[in-house]
Structures are given as C-alpha cells and as structure tokens.
C-alpha cells in the first residue's frame, strides 16, 4: 500500500536529525515531526551543553556531510580531544597522583591518527544538522505539530495530529527524548533509577591553552569535567548533590567563578565563565523494549544515562547508524522495513551494548561519587594500575573512541553509495 513516507521520525533533535540524514542518504523518504518550529531550536539559549563525539561517531558525521557544516571559513567548531586525564580528589586540594592517562598517540594505528574524539557545542551541532537537512531533497520537516495518536497496521503505520491531519509510513521512529510521548502511547515501560545528583553546565574561558586535554576529576559529590572546546575555552560539567547544585546556581558571578577556581586549580591560569549556567537533574532510564508494532525507539527515548563518560549522544548516533543499515539490508532482501523481523534485528544489535554501557556508567558513578575511605583508596589504586597496563588502557581508549564492536558502515566513515540506495 502507498504511504506518504518510508520513515517518519518524531523528534527533530540531535539524534532524530542524524537518523533522518542517515536514512535519507540510504535512499529512504523521510518525514521529521517536531513540536517546535525548526528555527526555535537554533537559538543560542536553547541548549548550553556540549557533547563529546567519539572518533567513530565523527566519521559518521563526515560521511553525512555534517562535519563540513561545522566549519565556517577557517574556523572549526569541533575541538579535538587528544588526551584524557582521569583523577580522584577533593575540591581545593591537589588530586591523587594515582591517575589514569589516555593519549590518542598510543592508539594512532587503530584510530588512523585521529584524536580520541571531538567536543562540539550542541548549538553548533544543531546548526550543522539543520544546514545539512536543508540540502537533502528526501527529508521533509513537519513542524510545528502535536501528535495525538498513531495506529499500526499490517502494512503501514498512521500518525494523527491534533489538527486532524494524518500521515502514514512503513516505519515510525521515536527520537523524542527521555520523556518520549510516542513511547508512552505505545505502552512501552521503562526501568529508571535516580542518581541523586544534578549537573551544572556552562562554558568558561581560560588564560592558558588546554592542548586538547579533557579532565575528569572525581570528587566525593560527583565528577567535575573540563572538556576542551575550540580556542581557550572549555565546557564544564560539574556534578553535585541536588541541594549543593541549587546553591551553586544561586551564587553571583564572582562567587561562582571562585567555586570553579577551587576545582580547577591554576593549571589553566585564570578561569572565568562566558556563558549562562544550566542545571539538569540526572537519572538513568532504559526502555524495556526498543520496538513496538512498526515502531523503533532511538536515543534518549530508548536509553538515558549519566554524562560521566560522555557516551549518551554517541549511543544515540550508534542507534541511528544501525537503524539505517538494517533498513538498507531489508530493502536489498525484499523485506518490509517495518516488519517484526527487521525490528528484532535492530533490538538485538543495539540493546545489549546499550544495557552494558548504561549499567557500567551507573557502577562507575557510584564507585567514585563518595568519600568512603576503603573505596577511595581502592579506586585510586585501580586507576594507577590500569594506567600501567598498556593493553587494558588501549582497550578503554578504543572503547571511548567508538572502535569496539560490530560497526555499521556509517561509523566506519563509509557513506551510502548509489549501488546500495
């Protein structure tokens, strides 16, 4: 039966637009549905966060043309992460000398000489994604609209909007975030548990160059991350107990800068905020199923994790790459792209990896976010030990850069060619 689209994607955020570009490049007709005007998402005040883009994920962005859109003249908005320093300590005191140091030069062969990843401000990534979608003829924006319901049948899924309009597709993709309305309509439950933490996010400028080094300092109340942006700037992810985070958010600029300086030390010289502050309550959430009838969940609609390892967005990008490849394979074999078999393939490919990473981040956060004496000494010894074991350190670096596991073509940097479209 004829449908309006091959795939309808609900959610025009970072993961939703990446999935749209991936599936469109593979030759599918895509509709992107969002509650807001596309231009509303491009305001600088929309999102103050930045994302760590693993090497494999950035190769995907190159294959989709998004990396090129991050460049304006001679300026690139992607800051390379050449090294990562993981240490344990307390605010106002020098960190433990037993730390873990990752250097991209140590896995240059596996990484083809690339850094461990790139830091990109979410607003810059959003602009690049929007710019690229405008160039692709088989992507249609359907916004602003509100979804009222959807109904899956034997050969299509129909989605009804509050204004009464109905559109149909072979497959519906929910990329509408951790509070996914589509997931709730489908009756898919979630497992969720709190972190009892909030993250404060801002951007700072500093006197001395960061040299592409990302710092993850584990404090008793949670990790304090200094993530290298372009220029002498860094994205700060400061994790605290909810009460302490609220108190920090209430500080005036001078007091807030002083608290930042206590955690930074002086290795970057003078540090001062150059952006507003945002605060986010942290929790873990995992959908009990990634699929429904002619429905797939991706990104935060399927899994939402702590930012401790900077892997949340990368998990969503891997979902998008896997989905595009499964649709391509289904078309090549003459299968219905919305069939149960196809959706089972997606869940089998993505759920195990995502479950493992979700629980690993939870355990890691619990292990480090405390000031219990025996645990503190054990984890410091553990960091020092891993740092001395080159093969183990190399494995963690390849994992962080997205080089482990069964990678879809896009994550290997391979764009879809005409002979597969």
In short:
Helices cover 33% and strands 29% of the residues. The protein has 11 helices and 22 strands.
Domain unit count: 1
What's the N-to-C terminus distance?
21 Å
Output the number of helix runs: 11
- Report the biggest beta sheet as strand number plus sense, adding barrel if it closes: 9 strands, mixed
What is the number of beta strands?
22
Average pLDDT over all residues = 89
CATH fold field value: FAD/NAD(P)-binding domain
Architecture overview:
- With 421 residues, the chain is of the alpha+beta class.
- It has a single domain (5-192, 283-414), classed as FAD/NAD(P)-binding domain.
- It contains eleven helices and 22 strands.
- It has helices at residues 14-25, 55-63, 66-69, 122-133, 181-185, 242-249, 253-264, 312-332, 340-368, 373-388, 390-400; strands spanning 5-10, 30-33, 50-54, 71-72, 75-76, 78-81, 83-88, 100-103, 117-121, 139-142, 147-152, 157-161, 166-174, 190-206, 213-219, 222-228, 233-240, 271-273, 278-287, 291-292, 295-297, 303-304.
- The strands form four sheets. Strands 7, 8, 14, 15, 16, 17, 18, 19 and 22 form a nine-stranded mixed beta sheet that branches. Strands 1, 2, 10, 11, 12, 13, 20 and 21 form an eight-stranded mixed beta sheet that branches. The chain has a three-stranded antiparallel beta sheet with strand order 3-9-6.
- The model has no long low-confidence stretch (mean pLDDT 89).
